[in-house]
Write a structure and sequence with these properties.
The protein is built from ten helices and eight strands. With 232 residues, it is of the alpha/beta class. The protein folds into two domains: 134 residues, 3-Layer(aba) Sandwich (Rossmann fold), CATH 3.40.50.1000; 82 residues. The strands form two sheets. It has a six-stranded parallel beta sheet, with helices on both faces. It is elongated and about 65 Å long. Strand 4, helix 6 and strand 5 form a beta-alpha-beta unit.
Amino acid sequence: MNQYMAIKAVILDFGGTLSNGALDLDPYHEKTRSILAGRGHLVEMIRLKKALKGALGDLNRVRMKGKEMTFEDVYDIFLGRLEIPGDRETLDELHDNYRNHLRTDFLPCVEYVLKNLAEKYKVALLSNTMSDQPRLLLSENGFDKYFDLIICSRDLGLRKPNPKLFKYILEKLEVKPNEAVHVGDSVKEDMIGARDSDVTGIWIKTPDQPSWSGYAISSICELPEFLENMGR
C-alpha cells in the first residue's frame, strides 16, 4: 500500500482479533442431549457426538471450497443423522444452546479502539462463522454502533479468504481496495484474503501461524496508533 494513500475503511476480524473464546464442549453436549430428550428423542451421548462429528465433517468439506453454511444447515444435517426432524423450533433452541456455551471475552481495549476507529474511518466486521454470534455479542455490548457494516460468512455463504467477500464489503462501504485495510489473526484467512483482494492486510501476531512479511501488530490495542503512522 502507498503509505500516502488515505485510509478510508477498516475491516476487522472477530475471533482472535476483537475477542477470544471457546466452546465449553462437555456441558454443550449434555445440554444438546437434554434438548433432544425434552422433545422426546432419547439419544446416547456416543451416538450424538458421532452425528455431530459427521455434520461438522460435511461443513468442513464445504469450507474447503471457500464456502460457508449456516448453523441451521449444519444442525439440520446433525438431526438428520439422528433421524430427528429438523423443525425451526428445535434448530432455534440448538442455536441458542450453542451461543450460551460459546464463551467469548472481548479484549479490554476493544471499546476504546472501536470508538477511535469510528471517528476516523468507515468500519466493517468480517467474521468466518456459521453462527450469528459476533453480531449478537457486538449488539449486546453496545459495540455495534461503531460499525457501518457487520458481515458473518454465513450471511453470504462464502468464507475468507474468498475475495468475493472483500469485494462485497468494499462495494457496500463505497471505497477502493487501496483505501482499506483488513485486520485479523489468521494468515491463511485474513492476510491471504486481503492480499488477493488488493486490500492491505495488518496481521495480529498469533502463535502457530505461517510466516507473514507484511504489516503486523501484537494486539488490536495497537491499531489506532499504527494506522496513524501508516497515514503519515
